[in-house]
Amino acid sequence: MKILFWNTHGNQNINNYVASLSVDYDVDILILEEYEDNKTDLGNILRERKLIARSTIGCDRIEIWSSYVDVEQGFQDPYYSIQIIKNEYIICCVHLPSDLHGDYSEERFGIIQQMMKEIQKVEEVFEILQEEISLRNQAATLPDNGRNPTHRCESWHPPVWHRATMMSRNSRYATPHSFRAP
């Protein structure tokens, strides 16, 4: 999984550059912070490269495109966007307030605490799903042959095993590190 995470710093006229980077690095997920160029135009360019815009409703600071079909929007906050990729990876894209115009350390700390709680909720759902899948892999289901249990069974059906692929749980946290546009 290749991820390009870039703070475009509100620069305009960068769509071709962004598209070129996504091709050059063969990215699967493109995440842009402070993106202010034409999203529709970029979406059209990226769609040709199999990158589709993903929902970040509730987080206006971050835009996401992905080549994966199975992407589910997790919790969205003005400062972060949680995305679940292939029911296997948690990606949390973060754009916290800076201290450029004052001390926002307390606000950042509160946002990080909330973000970690939301990620933990998603991880707990993953664990529950893993346990259910594991139980199904170990349990046999005997078909109901419609017979009275006190009567002799004339035919016996072997157990039908439920098989499911075990889901690996990997958390991938996008860091607040970013690159500034030229």
What does this 3D model show about the protein?
This protein has helices at residues 15-24, 39-48, 105-138, and strands at residues 3-7, 29-33, 52-54, 62-66, 71-77, 80-85, 89-94, 140-141, 160-161, 170-173. Strand 1 (3-7), helix 1 (15-24) and strand 2 (29-33) form a beta-alpha-beta unit. The two termini are 26 Å apart. The radius of gyration is 23 Å and the shape is flat. Mean pLDDT is 76; it is low at 139-182. The strands form 3 sheets. A 4-stranded mixed sheet has the order 1-2-4-3. The protein has 182 residues and is α+β, with helices and mostly antiparallel strands. Helix 1 (15-24) packs parallel to helix 2.
Q: Using only CA atoms, what is the Rg?
A: 23 Å
Q: Note the overall shape.
A: flat
Total beta-strand segments: 10
Major sheet size, sense and barrel closure:
4 strands, mixed
Number of helices: 3
Beginning-to-end CA distance, first to last residue: 26 Å
| Secondary-structure-derived class | alpha+beta
Multimerization state: single chain
Strand order of the largest sheet: 1-2-4-3
The low-pLDDT segments are 139-182
Order of helices and strands: EHEHEEEEEHEEE
**Percent of residues in β-strands:** 15-25%
- Mean pLDDT score, rounded? 76
Helix content: 25-40%
